[in-house]
Design brief:
Layout (H helix, E strand, L loop, with lengths): L6 H4 L2 H16 L4 H9 L4 H13 L6 H14 L1 H17 L7 H6 L1 H17 L3 H15 L1 E3 L4 E2 L4 E2 L5 E3 L4 E2 L4 E2 L4 E3 L11 E2 L4 E2 L4 E3 L3 E2 L4 E2 L4 E2 L7 E4 L4 E5 L7 H8 L7
Helix pairs in contact: 2-3, 4-5, 5-6, 6-8, 6-10, 8-9
The protein binds coenzyme A.
Amino acid sequence: MVHANTSVHQVDFIWDRLTDEARAAVAAEPLLGGTIHASVLHHPALEHALSYRFAVKLAAPEMSEQILREIASEAYASDADLALAARADIVAVFERDPACHRFLQPLLYFKGFGAMQAYRVGNWLWRQGRADLAYYVQMRVSERFGVDIHPGATVGRGIMIDHAHSIVIGETAVVGDNVSMLHSVTLGGTGKEDDDRHPKIGDGVLIGAGAKVLGNISVGHCSRIAAGSVVLADVPPKSTVAGVPAKVVGEAGCSQPSIMMDQLIGVRGPDQD
Ligand SMILES: CC(C)(COP(=O)(O)OP(=O)(O)OC[C@H]1O[C@@H](n2cnc3c(N)ncnc32)[C@H](O)[C@@H]1OP(=O)(O)O)[C@@H](O)C(=O)NCCC(=O)NCCS
């Protein structure tokens, strides 16, 4: 059942554009017809396509595609915010990744996007108290995509994880809206703290490749963390930090989210907070 309780579903320009792109891709490369039909054109809405992709990517001898698809369909049907976040993620990747030229690419080819959507389903399971299934999803995402996000972590919308090798995000980490990260980023503990032990990343932060952000520290909104940095202390908003250990090396501007992203981040269904 497609949810009709958010305005974004009533005029779903993302899904409309994605299906147009899919038809054009099949016309240009008929050998991809089967894949693109099964992943996009066969479905009535993005939620169905996301459930299919989740199942086909994470199925294993011990957990069938059919069961995984049921899990994802239940998640998307019960929490409209999941697919709204997916739409914001598609726009984020399209706007911030210079290698992304169509909405179709994240859905079909980008493992950072696939891993993020699977995390969102795992986090939904976690919030339902279904911890073991959530851990199973975390394990399969880690095995398939090399992205290890604890299902208890809190992650906002409009997230881009570029390349997405070797990403680790710990249980008590918080990641705001419109955050971008490159490959080999760790949001981890120092090993010296228990309980609330992971970083809190503000909105609009860029985390460069290989950066390690460790401990229950805050990275202020719109800050940039240079590639290869090890961040061990709070980062003020709108600043650039670099080095090991990272130090403030400059100021960072806040780029405005596009109108498209602004609308997506702002939209809530009537049953949402
Ligand atoms: C930090 C970054 C965002 C640039 O931010 P910026 O505010 O424009 O910073 P600048 O380029 O002006 O550099 C400021 C200072 O930090 C230094 N610096 C920049 N990046 C650094 C890094 N990764 N490690 C150490 N020092 C770095 C610069 O040399 C400069 O030092 P100086 O003032 O002594 O000359 C960029 O360098 C970066 O690391 N981006 C991540 C890109 C990435 O991960 N790419 C992977 C693609 S696959």
